Amino acid sequence: MGKGTLIRALLERVPELELAVSATTRRPRAGETQDVDYHFLSDAEFERRVQAGGFVEWAEYSGRRYGTLRSELDDRLRSGRPVVLEIELQGARQVRQTVPAAVQVFIAPPTLETLRLRLVGRGTDSPEDVERRLQTAADELAAQEEFAYVVVNDRLEEAVGRLEAIVRENLSAGPAGTTLSS
Ligand code: 5GP
Predict the structure, then answer these.
(1) Going by DSSP bridges, is the β-strand pair 18-19/55-61 parallel, antiparallel, or unpaired?
(2) Residue 96 burial by CB count (10 A; 0-12/13-18/19+): exposed, middle or buried?
(3) Most buried by CB count within 10 Å: which residue of 87, 117, 119, 145?
(4) What is the mean pLDDT, run by run of 10 residues, along the chain of 182 residues?
(5) pLDDT tens-digit map of 99-149
(6) Which ligand 1 atom sits closest to the C-alpha of 26?
(7) 109 C-beta neighbours (distance < 10 Å), count
């Protein structure tokens, strides 16, 4: 399963966590809903918000832009509610600078071959996009030692159990954002 499945399972187990809805310029996939899965923005609207300083972090991934809007984060952090960001590596590096208290977990695919099978099986990416995503995943894997925690996304039950333990340990240590990356 993908990172999204893992994170949904985490949110069920730790209901006080709130997931920030990211903005992206990619098109919605079948079954994705505006403002639930993502804030789907045009290139122009995304750019306008970049210029206005509306993003905590943003990055280009597989030819599209993705970012966390300040409006998703600020109120929650101010009131001490734990927020989960599901973001890729460049964004995680930005958050490390701007929100140093954030707990960062690298979610690793079991192998690149399982990732390939999942991407091909999902059937939403062109062969070029699959190759591009695999290359990015390989590059990201090389950066996993930057992260305080690494969870290998192998069997759902075990992976979510490890993630839950990390989150609970840090929640009891005090309020801080939690970042999930890979
Ligand atoms: P997908 O197109 O598969 O939904 O997402 C592609 C990648 O973008 C994933 O690695 C996902 O974690 C990352 N991503 C999603 N939202 C954000 C975001 O707000 N910021 C950053 N930097 N990456 C994101």
Answers:
(1) unpaired
(2) middle
(3) 87
(4) 90 96 96 96 98 98 96 90 96 95 94 93 92 95 96 95 96 64 59
(5) 999 999 999 999 999 999 999 998 999 999 999 999 999 999 999 999 999
(6) 2
(7) 22
Q: Is the CB of 109 under 6 A from ligand 1?
A: no
CA distance 101 to 92: 12
What distance in Å separates the CA atoms of residue 66 and residue 58, rounded to the nearest whole number?
Answer: 6
Global pTM reads 0.92
Residue nearest to atom 7 of ligand 1 (CA): 88
Q: Which of 1, 5, 19, 22 to mutate to test the pocket of ligand 1 (most atoms within 8 A of CB)?
A: 22
Q: Decide: 72 in ligand 1 pocket, CB within 6 A.
A: no
Q: Which atom of ligand 1 is found nearest the CA of 90? A: 22
Give 117: exposed, middle or buried? Use CB within 10 Å, 0-12, 13-18, 19+.
exposed
CA distance 13 to 6: 11
CA 20 to centroid of chain Cα atoms:
9
The reply to whether ligand 1 has any atom less than 6 angstroms from the CB of 149 is no
pLDDT at 61: 95
Å from CA of 173 to ligand 1 middle: 27
- What was the pLDDT predicted at 181? 61
